[in-house]
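Human:
Care to share another protein and its fold?

Assistant:
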Amino acid sequence: MATPQLVVLTGPLAVGKNTVADRLSEGFTARGRTVVIADVDEVAAMVGPPGAAAAGLWFPAHEAHGALVGQWMRSPVDHVIAVGPFFDDRERAALTRHLPTGAVTLWVVIEAPVSVTLLRAQADPTRGLSRDPDFHHGVHRRFRDLQPTMPADHTFDSAVDTAEEIAGVILSSALRPEDGSRRSRRG
């Protein structure tokens, strides 16, 4: 059994990570591939009120997410798409520590100006804390401060590129096995 490929989508709030993950999943499945989307926010949502962040359980949610991703990477799926804010070394280590030896990872950073993303978040009634301007700006500042240290095989600006365009580039890159130079290998 071959090890699945891991595609990591990271970036600040409301840049379209989940929309890109959905388009990417559609592209893989249209080519007969099996796909798992694992979003760290969904793992954090497992913590009951007042929520993972308020309960001091945001990082344990990252660790649980990493274990979940690691388990999917040991399954017979073709691609695992991890979605979340993997901004610093500790968050990335929580994601990657459970990966099988030889796992191929494609790192994708999606960004957009905070002036664009705050409007997106505030227009979405399903969003919670990300609609709060102070919180939203704080996450974007943290992202900008740490962005130079983030691995990135691809970086996109979702204020310029559509989710379909971003997914198309990632799909092309992910389906080129001979292009190992654009991917990082663990183990």
Observations:
- The longest helix spans residues 58-72.
